[in-house]
Request: fold
Amino acid sequence: MSSMLSDELDVEIGDPAPFNIKAEAEFVDHPSTEDMRRQAMEDVPDVYEQDPGVQGRVLSEIEELFGRLMDLRVRVRREENADAHIIGTEREEYMQTLREFWPTELTDDEAEVLLTAPEAELTDAMETLSDGYHTMFSQGIKTESLDAYREQLEAKVSESANSARVAAVIGSTGSDLLRPNLLFNATETLRRKHMAAEEVSPVTIRRGELIVPDGAIITAEDMVRIEDAGLLDSSDSWQMYGGAVLYALLLLVLISSYLVRFRPEIFSSESKIVLAGLIFIVALFVCRFALELSPFLMPMAAGTMLLGILLDGNTAIMFGLTMGLSAAVMTGGDVYAVVVSVVGATVAAVASDDIEERTDMMRTGIRVAAANVVVLLALVQQAGGVTAVDLALWRNVLWAGGNGILSAVVAIGLLPFLESFFGILTPVKLLELANPHHPLMRLLLESAPGTYHHSMTVANLAESAAEEVGGDSLFTRVGAYYHDIGKARRPYFFVENQFGGENPHDKLSPNLSALIIISHVKDGIDMAEDYGLPEAVVEFIREHHGTRRVSYFYARAREASEEDVPEDNYRYPGPRPQSKEVAVVMLADAVEAAVRSLARPTPDRIRGVVRNIIHDRLEDGQLDKCDLTFRDLDMVCDTFTRVLSGAFHHRLEYPESLLAEVKEEEKDVDSSGSDEHQWGSEDPENR
Reply:
């Protein structure tokens, strides 16, 4: 029977046990353990703290009261000595004065006693009252025992006083002024109760030990033991799993609805959905392990920080709230821990927009730590106050602060892997690629210094223009840095690296020269892949010439051959620029070379060159696939003109008679191996 129990036992609370139900393996008896812990907490006495200021305030108050009474009595005696008798109206005024400062209600008889009783009787009663205060305050007065102490005080004054009438008034007044000086410390009491509960060792039920005897009515506690022992029929477990699945589906619907409504570009990207889901799951997985140490250590901020960097801050905030709902289940509804974690996650998501370097991530972690600590202290203060002796509170404060640091460490550790695996370019990665000490940048500088400086100038032009047209300026700058790295394979075949020396193309056929020029794109792609450049940067290398024709060598080939020359052999393979950032680099690349070849680069002449090149790229269809508008192209033209005019010395405009000479000089520049005419009809592809 025992061996079949886990398959056959199907009971509910209130049913008689069908047989002796025994444990098949050792497990913790939670009902008994909880009972013992509850009893241990009840056995802990309440903690009270003595307020030494109460005694001083009460004694000062009674002394001041007695002093004012003596002053009033002196006035009464002075009037009686002067008039020999005080008529009723005057006596009533004195009693009214007494009632104004006396702390308790006085009848006429009581007021008369205080004004006319012998001073010795009053003094004795006040001394007895003062002695009673000292004794009772030294013993400690709690709020719940205040009434009993007041009765004792009145009895003490009554027993020792010479006059019953005086004792009654002084005793009643003194008992009314009595205050408790032992104050209940709820925080310390709760801490000690929790410590007592934690010291209780779990009760275990060993294998073979009887859980419920045959025929006994199964109670709620017995049902818990049967479930913990794993003996209950699992046919109803679908309810538990069904609830978990339903909760997960609700969270999924919540996130999906947000993405569909506000971030359709993320929802439509399979890789970004996978990325967000992976970060969500990993963050909850790390939170589950951190929960073993403290619920305040759950680093949800790591997930929102990564989502904010890799996707966007608003999406990160939404995922942070959803993670908070999941954490509420994991912590069993620990509101403080969930609120602290959600606030920290929100701070990380908001701050992620300003993260450009990995050190910024650590600074964000410090901000999260500070926010966590402030929120936790605010919650505790609102609930009952913060005390310096509450060690459990300060331990949680340390965990909450460590949460921010742990979140930053986790985010810093995971970011490079996520960037690489999903091919996402973050500002952090872009700044690393923009470092001049990057191996590819150093290789380009050493192998092709002319190309390196050309790329720097193109980067300056393209960055300024991209910013004007709403593109990613940092992304554009990095793309411009690497767009010509393929020239490092054969640097001397490009005019900017020849430095006035022999041009090797003079000894080559036009077809071979064009092949070498065009191959710098493929070489650049190969080098980028070898050095692990992100695909988004490789697109600049692949697309920055689009499907343009190498016009100079195509013209030479046609001059040297009587047959038709296949134009496709002299065109770049493309594709044409797919984004405004790559298109801006294409234009900046052509403009920089053309303006650099001008003999007299005045602002008007620079603007003319820029406009011709842009018009030529439009006519050739190179800008058809990107989302640049005509208004954007006007802004690009203005930006290029402004930047290039500032880079060159301003010169006076020459008369029209010199235009022919200028054009002739520019043709001479073209013949040196540059296959782009400055007015945009051709491309300087062998730079």
